[in-house]
Write a structure and sequence with these properties.
Mean pLDDT: 90
Radius of gyration: 14 Å
Number of strands: 6
Oligomer: single chain
Strand content: 35-45%
Length: 127
Amino acid sequence: MTDRTTAVDAAIEAELRLLAPEVRSSPELLGQLLHPEFTEFGVSGARWDRASIITALTESTERGTRPLIASRMRGVQLADDVVHLTFDTDSNGRLAHRSSLWRRCEGEWLLWFHQGTPFSADDGTET
């Protein structure tokens, strides 16, 4: 189910900014999109907090030869200040199902929680 409200649209816009290479390489730009209490369970199985994900993304030497591609993005507004997004990504052939919780704080949409789960195109879980 997709509930396209202005809040969902704002969270999708923020998520797409977060996936942009120029944002992922900038501690300042990343910091503008991440909630102070941000937590992520990554595709690798690692648990990240705000500081550690900013460091990992901005210091990464494994930048892909292709940009991160997002598909099937859907969103639902769970409360006035909370939006849940789900989507898939392809990062140089590494596929992941993704789930993000965005919270509106002082008028800005900030990523509060994110989880990535790897999948393969032939395992039947891509729908």
